[in-house]
TrEMBL record:
Reaction(s) this enzyme catalyzes, per UniProt: 2 5-aminolevulinate = porphobilinogen + 2 H2O + H(+)
Keyword Magnesium: yes
GO cellular component: cytosol
Ligand binding (Mg(2+)): E239
Family stated for the protein in its record: Belongs to the ALAD family.
Pathway: Porphyrin-containing compound metabolism; protoporphyrin-IX biosynthesis; coproporphyrinogen-III from 5-aminolevulinate: step 1/4
Enzyme Commission number(s): 4.2.1.24
Subunit text: Homooctamer.
UniProt keyword Magnesium present: yes
Protein name: Delta-aminolevulinic acid dehydratase
Single Gene Ontology MF annotation: zinc ion binding
């Protein structure tokens, strides 16, 4: 033995499967997953979404079946997004407040059939507006903060009354978390949680989602006056601090993989539950690389999800949730 050869060998603990398992610093289980799904009207309907290969819109009966599947797979929570036909879209997105809209019907159906599964609902007007923005637009095309927040409160209450467990405002209006929290408290909805999309970036990775909810061709301009700029990290910490002070139970960083640094900083600074949204464009990118023969799906899915856990996430919203849970359940 020469002095150049090491006695301390980090490969030692990697040398067998049992030892790698024993030394794993991070675990990923189906309980870390939130499964986002798209609802469409009708019955017995499944509509594949071209830009999200492997993901479909389902009518309420199919959504209930997926929620049961989630339960069987050990996935604790589903996230719901409605496809709204053009005739129900208006400037003010008023269908969001209809107590019998598709969202509310799906929430009630899931809570009837599988009450053990948590239901997370998105608060933002974009599925319902004719211009595709998350709020009300003034004559100059600006998304107005305070009157939008007034509507978002009503949308959140509408979802909570239908049985939503986690209200997830994704609109990025200032002040809405505190306003929604006090409205929920005012109705005695003390245990309805708020997961704030606290650090949500104006991202190029949302394209397939906009197809899925039927707002792709409609969006006028972009969302840069309310969603964050990719160059900013300190601002993300300020957003998180505000949402926590206003009463958020957990916070989200979105998109996921391109913003792992933000996740680490939020977790380190605030020590609160942090979630990542691995968004539609990330899903599509991974699937495209599999289709091109550049990578192997199962490995890519588990590696990316593990990255979120390693960065400090409590859980991940991912369109690969069911597939990942099947892999993890062996
Ligand atoms: C609505 C909303 C969006 C997403 C979730 N909620 C789109 C957007 O902000 O334009 C995107 C999710 C995804 O891409 O998977 N405000």
């Amino acid at each position: 033995m020469t002095a150049a050869y090491p006695a301390l060998r980090l490969r030692r603990t990697r040398s067998s499967g049992w030892s790698r398992r024993l030394h794993a610093e991070t675990v990923l289980t189906p309980a870390d997953l939130i499964w986002p799904m798209f609802i469409v009207g009708g019955e017995g309907v499944e509509q594949p979404i071209d830009s999200l290969p492997g993901v479909s819109r389902w009518s309420v009966d199919g959504i209930v079946a997926r929620a049961k599947e989630a339960h069987d797979l050990g996935i604790p929570c589903v996230a719901l997004f409605p496809f709204t036909p053009a005739e129900l879209k208006t400037d003010d997105g008023r269908e969001a407040l209809n107590p019998d809209n598709l969202m509310c019907r799906a929430i009630r159906a899931i809570k009837d059939a599988v009450p053990e599964v948590g239901v997370l609902t998105d608060v933002a007007l974009d599925p319902y507006t004719s211009h595709g923005h998350d709020g009300l637009v003034d004559a100059a095309g600006y998304v107005v903060n305070d009157s939008t927040a007034d509507l978002l409160i009503q949308q959140a209450l509408n979802q909570a009354r239908a049985g939503a467990d986690i209200i997830a405002p994704s609109d990025m209006m200032d002040g809405r978390i505190g306003m929604i929290r006090s409205a929920l408290e005012g109705e005695g909805a003390h245990n309805v949680q708020i997961m704030s999309y606290a650090a949500k970036y104006a991202s190029g990775f949302y394209g397939p989602f906009r197809d899925a909810v039927g707002s792709r061709g409609l969006l006028k301009g972009d969302k840069k006056t309310y969603q964050m700029d990719a160059s900013n990290a300190e601002e993300a910490l300020r957003e998180v601090a505000l949402d926590l002070a206003e009463g958020a139970d957990s916070v989200m960083v979105k998109p996921g993989l391109p913003y792992l640094d933000i996740i680490v900083r939020v977790k380190t600074r605030f020590e609160v539950p942090v979630f990542a949204y691995q968004v539609s464009g990330e899903y599509a990118m991974l699937e495209a690389s599999v289709a091109a023969g550049a990578g192997e799906r199962d490995a890519l899915v588990l590696e990316t999800l593990m990255a979120f856990k390693r960065a400090g996430c409590s859980g991940v919203l991912t369109y690969h949730a069911a597939h990942a849970a099947r892999l993890l359940n062996g």
